[in-house]
Amino acid sequence: MIYYPAVFKTNPEKIEQVFNGHGWRNSWTGGVFNYHHYHSNTHEVLGVYSGSAVLRIGGDHGESFRVSAGDVVLLPAGTGHKMLESSHDFKVIGAYPEGKSYNLKTGKTEERPFVLDDIKNTPIPKTDPVFGSSGPVTENWS
Questions:
Q1: Residues sharing a CB contact under 8 Å with residue 123, sequence separation 6 or more, in sequence order
Q2: How far is residue 126's CA from residue 46's CA, in Å, rounded to a whole number?
Q3: Which among 12, 17, 115, 118 is least surrounded, fewest beta carbons within 10 Å?
Q4: 25 vs 95: CA distance, rounded Å
Q5: pLDDT tens string for the chain (142 positions)?
Q6: Is the CA virtual torsion 51, 65, 111, 121 positive or negative?
Q7: DSSP-derived secondary structure for 91-107
Q8: Chain-centre distance for alpha carbon 97
Q9: Rounded Cα distance, 55 and 138, in Å
Q10: Residue 132 carries which DSSP code?
């Protein structure tokens, strides 16, 4: 997981424009499911547009993170996540590298071994959703 605290704090209305401009498309606006789920075929970026929430990242034994308007969380393919609690106005903007269509997985036994191959074969993003040609994705992800 890559966490970008308060990177859009003063201008959350620019989240989708910035993501899309850096090649992270197929964007949507909404909430985060209140059950563990993940995407085995793509990475996902979530920009908090409004409100705040506590998200569990990493499945049942993962860590809880409080996010609020302006924060961004990038979840590598296969990273389980769910919303534990939120303010009434919590809203995120999600997007995927190169506009990839995402699948929705919940950890059922019958999903394996196919998802393991998907996760292993998901390419590293070409750009950082927040900073484009620089930033944590391009500088630290290998």
A1: none
A2: 17
A3: 17
A4: 5
A5: 999 999 999 999 999 999 999 999 999 999 999 999 999 999 999 999 999 999 999 988 999 999 999 999 999 999 999 999 999 999 999 999 999 999 999 988 888 888 999 999 999 999 999 999 999 999 998 7
A6: positive
A7: EEEEEEETTPPPP-B--
A8: 10
A9: 25
A10: B
